[in-house]
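Hi again,

Forgot to attach this to my earlier email, sorry! This is the prediction with FE2/S2 (inorganic) cluster bound. I've pasted everything inline since the attachment limit keeps bouncing my files.
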Amino acid sequence: MARIELKDWPIPLENGGETVLETMIAHGVPFPYSCASGDCGACKGRVLCGEVAHDSATAGILSATERADGYVLACRCTPKGDLRIEALDELVALPAARRQRGWVVSRQHRQGDVVVLRVKPAKPVHYLAGQFFYLKFDNLPQRAYSVASLPGADELEFHVRLVEGGKTSSYVSRDNLVGSEVTVDGPHGHGYWRQNHGGPIVAIGGGTGLAPVLSIIGAALAANAHRHVHLYYAARVEADVYWEAELAALARQYPNLRVDCALSRAEPSEQGPLPRRYQRVTASLAQDWPSLAGAKLYIAGPPKMVEAVAVTARELGLAARDLHTDPFS
Ligand code: FES
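Structure tokens for the complex follow:
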């Protein structure tokens, strides 16, 4: 039986051969994590003393340099003996998740095969900007969706990408969806807004990854209307841009909010209200930010985009603790 000492945690933890993250969860430690499968980097920590056996990790989430400096993913490593470790992110007790009934109060089809759902839970639910919920309709399997609305709102807003032939897609496309019951389970996830950070915020939302990013920047700007925020709305082509008017209105409302549309596969054409960048979002990031030192970066969207942005951000000097990812397909 190995012993894990966690910096800033008063009690040593017993490990019986499971991963470091499993030990933290079993002992009720509020250690940061999200995917539990090596894809998000939320559980990153640094070994201060001792050794671990580490499974493979993608370079964008844990670079070779970080590995050499003692950084690990708690969900991908097991101690080889007694271990002293520190979490990179803050140890925060997140709002408790609960499962309850809710009802669809509105449903709106948008271009790019996106449906915007608003759900009213039976009881108000406390969550942090950017967290996600599991929704379960009728007899369908539950699906995770990040919340786009701000904490404190009565209704939860979700952006659902329709998938051809998908059961959930067929269900939310029904004409009589409004009024339907849905089980709401949450909140979950560590991709939330870090309120204690006062520097600039760079946020990247790819596809419906825009949803948690809207929640995060909305909460940050509501707290400080003069906050420096740069949002990249990443999409492939014009037809995928489903939330432009709202973003343009937000940019008019806040003097230090800049919003760019990064279109990776579109030919330059007539522009909408937001500035267009006809290149990958990583190229725009490198052009606009010679250094990301001191900034917080929130990325949500397809895993490949998240990983590519994470690599670029690291090259631009972003500190590992300031990278917060929410990869989903
Ligand atoms: Fe370990 Fe996501 S929780 S990488």
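The CA atoms of residues 62 and 68 lie 10 Å apart. Residues 2-87 form a domain with the Ubiquitin-like (UB roll) fold (CATH 3.10.20.30).

That should be everything now.

G.
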